[in-house]
Amino acid sequence: MDLGIKGKRALVCAASKGLGRGCAEALAEAGVDLVINARGAEALNKTAEEIVAKYGVNVTPVAADITTDAGRDAVLKALGGQADILVNNAGGPPPGKWTDWSRDDFIKAIDANMLTAVALMQALVPGMMERGWGRVVNITSQSVRTPIAILGLSNTARAGLTGFVAGMSRQVAPNGVIVNNLLPGIHATDRAESLDSGVAKAEGISIEDARKRREQTIPTHSYGTAEDFGATCAFLCSQHARFIVGQNILLDGGASNISM
Length: 260
Ligand code: NAP
Description:
This protein is an alpha/beta fold and about 260 residues long. The protein has helices at about 20-30, 40-55, 70-80, 105-130, 150-170, 190-205, 205-215, 225-235; strands at about 10, 35-40, 60-65, 85-90, 135-140, 175-185, 250. It has two domains: about 10-185 and about 225-250, Rossmann fold (3-Layer(aba) Sandwich); about 185-225, no CATH class. It is about 45% helix and about 15% strand. About 40% of the residues are buried. The structure holds NADP nicotinamide-adenine-dinucleotide phosphate. This is SDR family oxidoreductase. Belongs to the short-chain dehydrogenases/reductases (SDR) family. InterPro entries: NAD(P)-bd_dom_sf (IPR036291), SDR (IPR050259), SDR_fam (IPR002347).
């Protein structure tokens, strides 16, 4: 299927690895030029080189912490202040117990997983509206639909972003800007490995056993992949997504038993 976005330009945040990289690759395959971001320059530059070599699009890597004002300024400068497509992403907050977290922990999580996405939408969506076309995908989590007890910081911050998007997506749709959230369940990335190693350590089992046990809780009996995720993201950024507005799209292999 031709996604109809060849020659558009996208910012994909937190994209040297994992789900962000999956989104960057799928957009590049559709002919989209990219600004990609992550904190670690080495992995980011390598990813940029590999994407250029594979898909022949322009890729500008910007090594910066996207959760800071300086990091966002750096990516916005690389974009010359405008993009057609924005994929918001950042690392997830650490797991813990509800009594563990201080005010500072909550502020940090809300900054990273809610207010960073809001700031980038506020910076880039007005230009998309003026030009009459834009796409935004916010990577959130299945925890928005089925909160995960040990991920209280994530549950809190992502619920806030979801509420914001529910309103703003409907305010910008008349101007051709389509905003949706993509909710990953378990995908085989470094993040999943670190969650599995936490379980393995706590329960005295191997990481492989922790993973196998978790796979059995998913109807597909497998984890998702960055490629699965990226393909869905690219579709939501395509011409064909014109009528999908303000949705929370769950990619979890059926793990959350929600039929409505
Ligand atoms: P990942 O494999 O750990 O990759 C994270 C990517 O984000 C890396 O490129 C990392 O590079 C970059 N990054 C992290 N913090 C950053 C920051 N502050 N500024 C810029 N770049 C940053 O993670 P993932 O599995 O792709 O997960 C992506 C998001 O989806 C996370 O928020 C995660 O909580 C959420 N999620 C994932 C799953 C899953 O199963 N994988 C499930 C539910 C939700 P640097 O470290 O070099 O910055």
